[in-house]
Amino acid sequence: MLLLVALLLVAAGLVVVIVVVGPKGRTIAGRAMPFLGLFLLPMLLTAGGASYHLEQSKSTEFCLTCHVMEPYGASLTAEDSELLPAVHFQNRLIDGDHACFTCHTTYAMYGDLKAKWSGVRHMLVYYFGTAEYPIELYEPYRNRECLHCHAGAKSYEENELHAEMQAELLAEETSCLDCHGPVHDIDWETAAAMSTVGEGP
Amino acid sequence: MRRFTGNLDAPALLVLAGLIIQVVSLPRSHPLTFTLFLLGAALTFVGSLLYLWRVLRQGLDAGAAEPTRPEGG
Questions:
Q1: Residue of B nearest to A62 (CA)
Q2: Of A185, A187, A189, residue with least CA distance to A177
């Protein structure tokens, strides 16, 4: 990350030099410097920065920095709970550092980008609108995200009910959550008391 | 007083502003800095594309203005 910041500073310095010095004629160096400073280097560094930020934004810590998400994050550590997040998180069935993202991404092409674009929409609503509980998904939760891990697992495959309902589950006619709920069982009075929705994350 | 003879134009300013925003937003991972980074990236992207478009247009204009050699000369 430090290297990326240093390179960004170098690139910004190069742009300043280009702005101050101005065009240097038709020599190769005179043409190459603006191309390097105004196109090649900024594009490469922006791609590197985007990749770094995207990776960082998958962390559980990142999601829970926004206090609107605190009641949902509390489901991970709920005591004696059969909530799906608690079962997965506390039994290490998912990577604890990516607990939210593991379930709340789309396991399809550009799924990570789609999930993060939804996150940007959350931000826009937060700063320019009003975030209201309960926070709802933009679209119904798909079985595909569950089956990404569970399909092929012995515990899933050997369950007779799963075998009987296989076609329905794959066609998304029946949701996994119809039987395996609740997901985030939130005490809304406590959530409202601990949250100051609308005052910033 | 000496006149500024530099290259102060929209693409350079956009790229510079975008890079500065990226530098500021990169060290901390937070939803706000992530959104700021996207803004910086967008400015950089637009500035770079404007620069590229200008270079291409200058190249095309120069090609069109070049005199053609008479045949059979």
A1: B30
A2: A185
